[in-house]
Amino acid sequence: MIKFFRHIRQSLIMENKTSKYFKYAIGEIVLVVIGILIALSINNWNQERIQRSKSDELLRGMKKDLSQDITTLNRMINHYEKRMRFFERHLPSEGFSNLPIDTLEKIIDGFAGTFYHTTQSYEKVKNLGISQICSDSSLSERIDNYYSRSLEFTKIIVQHDQNKTIKDAEFWANDQFGVEIDYQLNMKIPILQDSLERRKNLMALISSPRGRNHIRMEVFRKELVLEHHDGIREKAEKLRADIEAYLQP
Is residue 150 within 8 Å of residue 235, measured between CB atoms? Predict the structure, then answer.
């Protein structure tokens, strides 16, 4: 093709057809420019196709990560709701004289969950330096908000409950002096208090202002964690559904 154009150009020059030569030269330049633009367009299309394929792969991984988060949140919510149902059954009463001793012990047996969230795909996005995970800027922004803000705040909420639960346990076990605690050790260390004395002291401990305040604070924390986890689960479910919709062909 290049030899063909060169032959035409030489023929026009030899025939001294200057005006036709210039027209031909301009046409040749236009063809070259068009060829370059087409090549650039194809290259850009290929790059966009590669980027979309990589983005879709990361989004599919993110969808899987979100499913794992939702499973973990469901398990956590179930544990907290179980603890709250226990409190609702036994705390409204002013006295505990009718409660068996194992129920009294469960009242002071605090629980704090641990939320392990999955961020593998999001970490890949950050490591690759991708500023926007998909062409939908709203979806990309919500993904970033979920991982960089919502999950970080969730860790703070859960850590706060864990720290306070440890302090509660220290109070129930060490700061009071009337109840001997059964730690369920492998080594059998006998409890010297008889059941009547332990029951009496447990009721006095739970009925004391300090004891009741510790119980109230645990209930307050559990309500806070439950409300937050419900919100995070809803956000994760909505985000997963939106990613799935975006990935549909």
Answer: yes
* pLDDT tens, position by position, 65-99: 999 999 999 999 999 999 999 998 888 766 677 78
- Count how many residues are written for the chain: 249
**Cβ atoms < 10 Å from Cβ of 113:** 20
With beta carbons less than 8 A apart as the criterion, state whether 101 and 199 touch. Answer: yes
Alpha helices in the chain (DSSP H): 2-14, 18-90, 101-107, 120-127, 137-145, 151-170, 195-207, 209-247
Residues 53 and 72: their CA atoms lie apart, in Å, by 29
d(CA 102, CA 104): 5
pLDDT tens per residue, range 147-179: 989 988 998 999 999 999 988 888 888 877 788
> What CA–CA distance (Å, rounded) separates 39 from 44?
9
Measured between alpha carbons, how far is residue 164 from residues 81, 159, 218 in Å?
18, 9, 8
Q: What is the average per-residue pLDDT within 14-28?
A: 56
